[in-house]
Amino acid sequence: MYSKVNYTLIGAFxxxxxxxxxxxxxxLGNRGIQDNYSLYxxxxxxxxxxxxxxSGIKMKGVDxxxxxxxxxxPKNIEEIDIILKIKNSIPIKEDMFGIIKMYGLTGLSYIDIxxxxxxxxxxxxxxxxxxxxxxxxxxxxxxxxxxxxVMVKLVTLLDKxxxxxxxxxxxxxxxxxxxxxxxxxxxxxxxSQAIETLKKGEDTLVVTQKSIKDxxxxxxxxxxNISIATKDIHKEVMPSIExxxxxxxxxxxxxxxxxxxxxxxxxNMQKIMHPMMIDLQELSIQIxxxxxxxxxxxxxxxxxxxxxxxxxGE
Length: 314
Hints:
The chain is 60% helix and 16% strand. It is α/β, with parallel strands linked by helices. It starts with a helix and ends in an 11-residue tail after the last helix.
């Protein structure tokens, strides 16, 4: 009784399992029909290291297909033919190009479809062959093409560096540093001397300014005293000058009156008094001149130096 039940359960389980497998196969078939792909050819001259069958194809970071096959072009061994399987829903334009890129540092690579504009025409096959996508230059290819030139420049740079760091240049550089050190030391000494000289000059300038101020103060004091003294002398001497002037005028008047009397014959002493009248007249003239000069410049009486008269023949 128990064995019959076990066989029944096993048979039912097997039937259900077969039905499930058949359903899954139909589901995969339907999905494959829904997701139709188109084939494209990409020819590259770069290394395809990291690429393999079923490697991904991306456009702007979105998966759009996979690689169907990779082979060398039999007509040109420098080229590699990569057959791309891309979804029909993705329009491939004529101005698009494919580049081999790497997944970071994993060593795996993928095909990146770049470029393309909406106004560009859709890429189509020609002469019954697969539509060919243009190949772009990858970063690795650029680095590889420029690597030789970079290495040459690097070797040249190393040679120049080795020549620059030769024993002779190192000795010359050491001498230059020593001379520079000596020059700096002399500059410091000169700087200290210049600072000391400037300080002395500043002190001297201060003393000179003080002396000039004292001299100016003393000169102003002396000038004030001279001005006061001149005013006092002028006040004291002016009355005497006025008296001299009056006396001179009186003498002159007296001389003229006396001269007229003598001319009229009032006195018989004309010849005797004539020399005396001449002296009195000259004295009157000198007194008048002295009074006039003192009125114009009283200081000349005290401070003007007299010039001695020269004798005949001097």
